[in-house]
Write a structure and sequence with these properties.
The structure is a single chain. This protein is mainly alpha-helical. 71% of the residues lie in helices and 0% in strands.
Length: 222
């Protein structure tokens, strides 16, 4: 089966771009509360703000808040992970001339998180990096890498085998490689993940993403 053509940088980030970290408490309740606030605000902006200009303004403001949380808790991977996620989302909402710059910034932030704790938040770091590596074009336009993406997403899936995001993004990656049959399997597994009452906006929004992609692939397969 032929591979799905790699997207041009101008349209790349029109897709739901950022991965999100699986929930997981640290031994620092104050930090967990600040990280949770960034998480919930990210979900609200992504899934409930419909005006694109307002969405970009709000995600830009949230990126500054996420940077402040990182500064408040130096040496911790969790705030860095969420700063990377928000910066990735900002790439998806920015102009085509800014997208790659934001994506590079997100990668650098996530690399810092990985250096501290590659297993933080149940695989959120490799998952978020993996999404960057398969959604960003490769050389000479960007830094994308199918091989790195596959390795990182498999690592994330091993840490969170029943997760909504880990299965969704691995399924979406397989679709990007033309493997729609296996992609359908992982998308179906994503929907089997238990609902998360602590992150209701993200849970509902991501499941809608999964259902939409699954319906498209099943229609094409049928």
């Amino acid at each position: 089966m032929s591979l799905r053509p790699r997207l041009a940088i101008a349209s790349l980030f029109a897709l739901a771009f950022a991965a999100t970290a699986p929930a997981g408490a640290s031994n620092n309740p104050a930090m967990d509360a600040d990280v949770s606030r960034i998480d919930n605000e990210w979900a609200r902006i992504k899934y409930q703000v419909k005006d694109k200009d307002a969405q970009y303004r709000q995600i830009d403001a949230l990126a500054k808040q996420a940077a402040a949380v990182v500064a408040r808790y130096p040496g911790h991977a969790e705030p860095l992970l969420w700063q990377g996620i928000v910066t990735s989302e900002e790439a998806g909402m920015a102009s085509m001339f800014q997208q790659l710059g934001y994506a590079k910034a997100a990668r650098a932030i996530l690399d810092r998180a990985a250096a501290i704790d590659p297993k933080a938040m149940n695989g959120g770091v490799p998952m978020s990096l993996g999404v960057l590596y398969y959604r960003v074009p490769g050389f000479p336009i960007g830094f994308g890498s199918t091989e790195k993406a596959r390795t990182l997403l498999k690592n994330a899936l091993a840490m969170d085998p029943g997760g909504l995001d880990s299965n969704y993004f691995y399924g979406d990656f397989l679709h990007s490689q033309g493997d729609d049959r296996d992609a359908i399997t992982y998308l179906q597994r994503a929907l089997q993940a238990p609902a998360n009452p602590h992150r209701p906006v993200w849970d509902a929004g991501r499941r809608a993403d999964v259902r939409a992609e699954l319906a498209k692939l099943q229609k094409h397969a049928g």
